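This week, study the protein below.
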Amino acid sequence: MKKIVTLLVGAVVATALTACTGNITVNNKSADDGQTATEETVKDEDAVDVEEAQPEDAQAAEETEPADEAVDESPYDDPKSLPLYKYQGDDEYLGVISDYMIAEAMEMNGENAADVYIPYSIVAHTDDRNPDDILVYGSFNRCGYNLLNSTLVAVSGSWDAGIFHLKKTGDGDYEVTGADLPMTEQESIKLFDPLPGLYDKLMATFDETGDELRQEEIAKYINTNGLYITQWQEYGYAPKPVLNAPPTPEEENFYTHTSQMGYSLTYDLRKFSYRGDATGESYLKIEPDATWTGTSMNVNSFDTEDAGEAITEALSFTDAESFDISDSVIGDNISCKRAVYDEDISDGRIFRYICYAVPAGDKTITIYLYTAVQEGVSELTVEELEKTFEETLKTFNVL
């Protein structure tokens, strides 16, 4: 089973994908009137071939922006005051496009907006024959990040292959007048039909340079603003160091999460990925793709003081008809109830659950541990599953 990297924030569901620094021009020649756009005719001497689509400033960034000059050594105390991303590249259109993308994300998410949005775009082709409707073809992407200690954690993202429409203003600047950003790949391919071969070149460039270029764009944002941020993290994966940043101190890998559900706990960013919304919160164990089991700890809150009722609600998606509930303790010797349930799956796997019900005033907080038991992949016993989250559960507190 492949790990799911689709991120949920509020009502926005988007796939967080790899990024690029500023832009890579795959092709920038406008089709002349009467000319049929083909793979050969849309290419000119200024265009970057797919094979050569590597950012020229990639090496320079590492040589000219060393960590001791680029990173402020004082922690950024208020994550919500992180400065807005501003495009730093040379493309004349991507500045206004990036601003538009950020404003759209912030408006869409409101109070649930990420601490910072870092766009990354690949310009494939521009047609500026009509100054009132300049067409910019490309891959237009953004990632939203929250700052946890000194780690930027991806919490949302979008990837769109399409066309931005711009017009030139009286003062010589540009403004976005619209965007054609299809929801499906087939629609994007159709949108690129007038320029045969361009979509495939764009995708090849993105695939070949994405991860490296994304890291460079993150580093550029941090360096430009002099921030103390040492690593970044994609959901389900271990943190990666920011280019040229100092090593992350051991203690900053442990983040204390205070939940609106009325609890707090401390977890290791190198071992678990957090994701949460109004419906619940989850701490996913970081595992290799080849042996991924979805092992996780999941937290919910229910308007009941009855532990049995809360456990039944927390595991209502299973086929269990009843649970054997026993006394247990959690965190700093907090009394709670506990139930264990194994569900046999038709493909031979076993879905294993351990659920705790913790009193929290007139509510009950449930914490269920989950893993998929599969021969030859992962065969965690109940004891081993509890051991996986033992250190994290020791820090659990009801607020």
Summary: Confidence is low (pLDDT under 50) at residues 1-25, 27-79. The domain at 250-398 is CATH 3.40.1000.10 (Protein Transport Mog1p; Chain A). Residues 198-225 form the longest helix (28 residues). Helices lie at 57-64, 67-70, 94-109, 185-191, 198-225, 307-314, 382-388, 390-393.
